[in-house]
Amino acid sequence: MTNDLARNLINAGVHFGHAASRWNPKMKPYIFSKRGMIHIINVRETLKGMILAQKLLADTVSSGRDVVFVGTKRQANKAVKAAAESTGMHYVTTRWLGGTLTNFRTVHSRIQRLEELESMANDGSIESESKKRASTLKRELRKMKSNLDGIRKMNQVPG
Fold first, then answer.
1. Cys-Cys with 134: which of 20, 53, 119, 129 at CB 3.0–4.6 Å?
2. Which one, of 103, 102, 105, 90, lies nearest residue 148 by Cα?
3. Span 58-73, pLDDT tens digits
4. pTM for the full predicted model
5. Strand, coil or helix: what is 89?
């Protein structure tokens, strides 16, 4: 199984690192070699990390706590969202908001504001505002929806 997974990782190009000139010396144990001016990442170390993460996730979820899937790169957005929705967990795909976990009370108040704005949009009270105020509220709703949509059902800090 791990051989197939390693082969799939290599076929996906996971082993290509960044430019050798931009490396951090703490990464030395995880670098397999250097080809051209690009570091090649050791796939064995990647597999060890993935197996460790799998065990940690299994322990966390089996104890009844939630998990947040985070993938803010464009290539990962759809995969992270699909995986989180299929497992019923929370996700962040556009932008990680600072303090999402450490200042959860504030983030939760912003989620409540998002729900308030959505209810205003549904009952049409935004349209009854002046054009400028309605535009401001719609913009706020759009930004909050993109940033908080995946964590809107998160009522407590995840495990």
1. 129
2. 90
3. 999 999 999 999 998 8
4. 0.77
5. coil
